[in-house]
Design a protein that fits this description.
CATH superfamily: Alanine racemase
Strand content: 15-25%
Radius of gyration: 18 Å
Strand order of the largest sheet: 7-6-5-4-3-2-1-8
Largest sheet: 8 strands, parallel
CATH topology: TIM Barrel
Shape: globular
Number of helices: 9
Distance between the termini: 40 Å
Number of domains: 1
Bound molecules: pyridoxal-5'-phosphate
């Protein structure tokens, strides 16, 4: 039997191939799309294994769990992003152990992170947005976005980089793409007002192609890299 050696077989190679195919199709430069491995619920050993394949950027959702892994893997020189719901009493831990925060959704959190970051290092931050029809979700509505952008831009220790979104799951590529295009429009409106928005964090295991088509610079992938999550672990 002949073996096709070009066909990727490991999860990381399959994801890289999906990214490359989408970039080729939608005229994107592969180097403009950062693959973030979302490692919530995964043990440090799985992160180490993925890092041995050259994956250096990881994201966590829960502060305690995330900080534990950041410390345990501090010999690895990994890049850590925080993407979970932020509580203001955890700002110091987040500022100390992470270099990116994707989930800023209110002024109070931005103020706390800015103050905490002064003790450690500047933070790259994104504002989490919710679209008009997602009433009960986390994130800033389009109506309040401009004000928060202005406020964060004034903060010395936060570098506002762009927007993040977690749209409701959709199976249909067209709908996925339409949703991401709305996030891109929100970012473009801020760019038009003179604010820097060089990052768009959108796209997960099921919709990374649609996100890349609409300009994602950071895609957050868990399941496609590590398999299904077990929250009972
Ligand atoms: C868990 C999580 C992901 C990863 O989702 P998958 O569908 O497993 O790829 C991405 N972004 C956020 C904010 C998450 O909480």
């Amino acid at each position: 039997m002949e073996i096709d050696t070009d066909k990727p077989t490991t999860p990381i190679d399959i994801v890289r191939e999906r990214i490359k195919t989408a970039c080729d199709k939608y005229n994107r430069d592969v180097s403009d799309v950062t693959l973030i491995a979302v490692s919530k619920t995964r043990p440090a050993s799985s992160i180490r294994e993925l890092a041995s394949h050259g994956q250096k950027v990881f994201a966590e959702n829960y502060v305690q769990e995330g900080v534990g892994k950041v410390c345990e893997l501090s010999d690895m020189q990994l890049n850590w992003h925080f993407i979970g719901h932020l509580q203001s009493n955890k700002s110091i831990e987040v500022a100390e152990h992470f270099t990116w925060v994707h989930s800023i959704d209110r002024l109070k959190i931005a103020l706390k992170l800015n103050k905490a970051a002064a003790r450690f290092h500047p933070l790259n931050v994104l504002i989490q947005v919710k679209l008009d029809d997602e009433e009960n979700k986390a994130g800033v509505g389009a109506d309040c976005l401009s004000v928060l952008v202005e406020q964060i831009s004034e903060m010395e220790n936060l570098n506002l980089r762009g927007l993040m979104s977690i749209p409701k799951p959709e199976d249909d590529f067209k709908s996925q793409r339409h949703t991401f295009s709305r996030v891109k429009k929100l970012a473009n409106a801020q760019t038009d007002r003179g604010f820097t928005m060089d990052c768009l964090s959108m796209g997960m295991s099921n919709d990374l192609e649609a996100a890349i088509a609409e300009g994602a610079t950071h895609i957050r992938i868990g399941t496609a890299l590590f398999g299904p999550r077990d929250y009972n672990r």
